[in-house]
Amino acid sequence: MADPGPVVLLIEDEPQMRRFLRAALGNESYRLVEAATARDGLAQAAGRNPDIILLDLGLPDGDGIDLTRRLREWSGTPIIVISARGQERDKVAALDAGADDYLTKPFGVGELLARMRVALRHAARAAGGHEEPVFTTGELRVDLEHRRVFVAADEVHLTPTEYRLLVALVRHAGKVLTHRHLLREVWGAHATSQTPSLRVHMAQLRHKLERDSAQPRYLLTEPGVGYRLSAD
Amino acid sequence: MTERRPDPEALLAQARAEEQRATRGRLKIFFGASPGVGKTYAMLEEARAKRREGVDVVVGVVETHGRAETATLLEGLEVLPRRAVEYRGITLHEFDLDAALARRPTLILVDELAHTNAPGSRHTRRSQDVEELLAAGINVSTTLNVQHLESLNDVVAQITGVRVRETVPDSILDQADELELADLSADDLLTRLREGKVYVPDQAARAIEQFFRKGNLIALRELALRRTAERVDAQMRGYMQEHGIRETWPAGERLLVCIGPNPAGARLVRAGKRMATSLKADWVVLYVEAPGQRISASDRDALVQNLQLAQELGAQTVTVSGLNAAEEVLAYARTHNVTKIVVGKPTHPRWRDKLFGSMLDQLVRGSGDVDVYVMSGDVEGEQPPRGPLPGRPAPLAEYGRAAAVVLLSAAVSFPVFSFRSLTDVAMVFLLGVALVASRYGRGPTIFAAFLSIALFDFFFVPPRFTFAVSDVGYFLTFGVMLAIALLISGLTLRIRAQAETARERERSTAALYGMTRELAAARGQSELVAVVARHVRDTFGAPALVLLRGSSGRPELPVGTSPAYPMDEKEQSVAAWALAQGRVAGAGTDTLPGAQGLYVPLAASSGIVGVLGLRPLDPKRFQDPAVQHLLERFAGQAALALERAVLAERTQAEQVEIQAERLRTSLLSSLSHDLRTPLGAITGAASSLLEDKGTLSEATHRELLGSILDESRRMNRLIGNLLDMIRVESGALQVQKEWQPLEEPVGVALIRLEDRLADHPVRVHLPPDLPLVPLDGVLIEQVLINLLENAVKYTPPGTPIEISATTTDGVVRVDVADRGPGLPPGEETKVFEKFYRVPGATATSGVGLGLTIVRGIITAHGGRVWAENRPGGGAAFHFTLPLGGAPPPGVPAPAPAE
């Protein structure tokens, strides 16, 4: 363990939350940098070059969404947004502004660590420019090279749109993707208002890939925000 | 009379008077026989003495008339500035009542009580100003000359030959707490007059000369002394009464003064007052209204004034109606234990009494043991010219018809005459006349009678075809014909008049009944106000409105004031006065008569609830006692209805308040219980772990930590529910509908509740062809979570939960059903109420908000939610979501899985 753990920048104004995260992350060999204000957070992000940023949306001195946008101007560091329940619109705005994922308070340590792992993995993959030719989660297997999809041993036939949608999710597996993001990636920049269309295709994809489409295992809905492909 | 006990009635009246006196200011009157005796002087001297004693004395108004000695006395006293009033180009300086009320001194001096205020003042008379000051609890000192007393007005006029116009009611003298006589012998007064110490206005110099004759002054002095003595006598009696001394207790005399619709009544009223006073008797002034009797406008005015005068002099006034005045008077006298009746001397010619019987005669004969006094009914001043003969002028057409009837009887008479006698012909004509008399007025009847006589004479009486009469006996026939015609027409007119009166009554009663009925049906104050205004307007033919007492105690303008009734500031202040004082004010009354409207207070049992305003085109009409009475009845009904509405609204508001209070209490108790329980568990577990010195096992550690986590989650859910509740309640719930498959929220709910649903198999039946539904994903997910949690909470582990959906009639119906114990019968709708918990539920069951939130969210979606017990056991919750048309274009239809 000579390799020091990744640097985590925590931008959070609540001392109790900071104390909890300090304890939780310290155990996991993360090195924690703390900032209590948006201003300080921006300075720390520039100075300490963190590997991942945990950003609370409800900062006293500024708008977390705006901070995300400013960070994204020069940094590709993964950002995980932390927000309270009932702020779906803020979450979507933060994700559209460039945040990678979000967590709703209160959350458990396990969930936080899982999200952080996903974010770091994506960042590493993006940096390496390398893409796995075959994606597997549970019984679902997507062969990106040969454009074939399997559930257990059975091959599933998808329409081109369904396939494009699945590939978009696979590329960001484990990450939440907003409706807008998916629409832009699958249908193109002009189609960002076609949310019902997206929902219908998602429903069809579930019918084809899930054992019980009402209790999906892989294609998860993030209410009010978007979808996520389970990566575990 | 050996009884020494005070008369209870009298004691009660005394107690009432004392009670009133406690809150009212004290009135002291400096009384004098004539100007110049030194009333003002005495008043000012006393005021200075009071001031030296430290009493807060203010001079409201004192006329010095340029007399130096009076002016000297004014020095050092606080004098209120006068109010300037413009009247016909002259500036008058009047007493400023409002300033006095605002200043609120302990004692205020108001000179010359009988003064008449300049037009445009609040009251027509200064005595009314004083009355208001007293009512406000301010002590008043004032001055008064004997000739200004209402009841002595006639006597003074007789003595001096000068009639004084400015008078005050005697009652004010009786009400005075103190009366001080400023006395000066006639010689001394005349000396003062010669020395120029008595104020004499230039313009009335001659009249004054006539006034200040020695004989006059002596007579006036006697009057003043006697009036003062009477008062001392009254005080003595009061003292005796108070102390149970009854030796001189008079028998209960009751005086009835009968007046007619003529100016002579005033004299009778004053005479009655003097008699009543000397007899110490109660007195009543009675007017017998004859139905259909036509009274000229000036006579009616005189009647109204005389009745008002009687009231001011302390009489009770009564108006009864009946054809026979004597009978009515006697009936009233008998039923009201009247001991003496006062009537005026007849002024009509004697032959009328001979012909129709004398009312006076009837009265005297029927009076039994009641004394009847006949007073001179001289008319003061010249009698106003009599109007035209009362009676409806008959239109020309009626004369035409009368002529036609007579011609017809003539035509019938020819065949009759050929085989019957002349007597029968006369009968035919008589029939015609009777017919005319029964249908038309007096004029056409007389015309018909004469025409009949002429035709009868010309055609049938020998010598025929001439107007000559051979036999004198026929003149008797003519006379009888005429007499019968007059008799019948008189009877008919009477009957018709009676019918007219009855109809008038009927109309009034019907109008009142109509309003009462509508008031009973009306809901809420604004509706009542509209009903009252409309009925009053229709019945009295004048724009009307109702002003309710506002929260500030002032009348509040109704919303949307009718343009027919503009309420400017002046009108509003008159209405405010009527409301505050509880008395009628405005046009046609003595108070603020300059106003356009007439304002009647709406007095209910709990006080005055508002003011009824009318804009009469003819204010005089409202001085008619009958109209006044009807208006009062309308106001009374309106007041009762409005009071009822106010009370009902208050009760309702209280009910709502009680409900809200109950809810607050139950919310607070829920919060304190439901938030403290998990907090207690967390605190306990955390402190155990913190203070552990290695004695707790690894398993216990984990158990404690697990309970901290569980309880935290429970609290999170609870707070979430409360926040949702607040959002639903406050209307802050924003539904952002998006077309989406129902699968999505169902799926999310199931995943979110995965842990808690572990013990319950969940079966989902969503038909593959289920259309997209416009819904707010986050909210519907909450609905499903709440319903599922509910099922988990109330059903034993292992029992299945089913979720299904169907489409019918443009709605999607979603069912969440369990196989638990079901709902308590009859409480299927109650479960959606706030803080409802199934009886006997355990503490873990929650606050009782889950289903209320479900209802709030579904209602906000335009759907419906209900619960029922399933056949075969268990509870089922259903909710619907409207599909609301076709999904937006460009959406592919959902295809079933391949």
Question: What does the secondary structure layout of this molecule look like, with pairings?
Answer:
The complex is a heterodimer of chains A (232) and B (898).
Chain A: E1 7-11, H1 15-26, E2 31-35, H2 38-48, E3 52-56, E4 58-59, E5 62-63, H3 64-72, E6 79-83, H4 88-96, E7 101-104, H5 109-128, E8 134-137, E9 140-143, E10 148-151, E11 154-156, H6 160-171, E12 176-178, H7 179-187, H8 195-209, E13 219-222, E14 226-229
Parallel strand pairs in A: 1-2, 1-3, 3-6, 6-7
Antiparallel strand pairs in A: 4-5, 8-9, 9-10, 10-11, 12-14, 13-14
Helix pairs in contact in A: 6-7, 6-8
Chain B: H1 8-23, E1 27-32, H2 39-52, E2 57-61, H3 68-74, E3 78-79, E4 83-87, E5 90-94, H4 97-103, E6 107-110, H5 126-135, E7 139-145, H6 153-160, H7 170-175, E8 178-182, H8 186-194, H9 205-211, H10 214-242, E9 254-259, H11 265-279, E10 282-289, H12 297-312, E11 316-321, H13 325-335, E12 340-344, H14 350-356, H15 359-366, E13 371-375, H16 396-419, H17 422-439, H18 442-460, H19 473-521, H20 524-540, E14 544-549, E15 555-556, H21 569-581, E16 585-586, E17 598-604, E18 607-614, H22 625-690, H23 698-730, E19 738-740, H24 743-752, E20 762-765, E21 773-775, H25 777-794, E22 801-808, E23 811-818, H26 850-860, E24 865-869, E25 875-882
Parallel strand pairs in B: 1-7, 1-8, 2-3, 2-6, 6-7, 9-10, 9-12, 10-11, 12-13, 20-22
Antiparallel strand pairs in B: 4-5, 14-15, 14-18, 16-17, 17-18, 19-21, 22-23, 23-25, 24-25
Structure description:
The complex is a heterodimer of chains A (232) and B (898). With 232 residues, chain A is of the alpha/beta class. Chain A is built from eight helices and 14 strands. The two termini of chain A are 25 Å apart. Chain B starts with 7 loop residues before the first helix and ends in a 16-residue tail after the last strand. Chain B has a six-stranded parallel sheet with strand order 3-2-6-7-1-8, with helices on both faces. A five-stranded parallel sheet of chain B has the order 11-10-9-12-13, with helices on both faces. Helix content of chain B is 50%, strand content 15%. Classes of the chains: A alpha/beta (232), B alpha/beta (898). At the A-B interface, helix 8 of A face helix 23, strand 19, helix 24 and helix 25 of B.
